[in-house]
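seq:
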Amino acid sequence: MAVVIDNLVRANVPRHPEKAHRPDQPTLRKPEWIRVKAPVSPGYVETQRIVRANGLHTVCEEAGCPNIGECWEKKHATFMIMGDTCTRACAFCNVKTGLPGALDPAEPEHVAEATEKLALSHVVVTSVDRDDLADGGAAHFAAVISAIRARCPKTTIEALTPDFLRKGGAVETVVAARPDIFNHNLETVPAKYLTVRPGARYFASIRLLQRVKEIDPQMFTKSGIMVGLGEQRDEILQVMDDLRAADVDFLTIGQYLQPSRKHHAVIRFVPPNEFEALTTIAYAKGFAMVSASPLTRSSHHAGEDFARLKAARAAR
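struct:
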């Protein structure tokens, strides 16, 4: 039997091969409230240098976050572990799709070193989906959390995890590593999962968040959704109810922005006053902390928001 190993590097391989032959989607002109400044500050350049020097990936870059200029100017970066290639192909996401490489055993220490160099008081660690791994990468998440704790004991840690779908014991592994906040985003309303997040299951994500509280009732939990994907208002309110039933503490809501014409179209740009109304409703439903605005992202202002979340719990 002959085994053929293809070692050719193909420069023209598309970032999203599964989307390459899809018809282009329409694009809407962004309103004034969605505009951001180009990232050019010295703080941005220094953050970029530290990220590159440690061979790390950030969701800020890979997902094309509109807040990268603001956050990196303050030396705030969200580290994306386990590589830059995701095993899922969500219609909204700009992270590269494909077969990921092996885990880097030195990555936990590299993330901890970058956290120290950036002098982060709060760090968000997220990852690509790794359906190819037996535990979905849960042990690697735990190793990163432990490495940060060892090098930066005063830094609070937010784990923004994938759904660990059909990965028994994965959530228990991450919770045992004791992140200060466990974050997992629902991304959209359940009716949109087949078109927006086809590799995931809405109620599996709700169950994951609920399981965190069963293991450790004192651990803060957080989740977020995007709007502008064609969801209805009553569907958003139902998501709020489902998250409160799982005892989730913190809700984020932001405007979906289309990374390319091959991604899901923006159905509409939600005006700021509607975000304000959703904030009021979410607080009325019992969330301890809510962040909702057109440019809200899960890790945007994460440190400041976590401080407010702790204060809200203490005041209850």
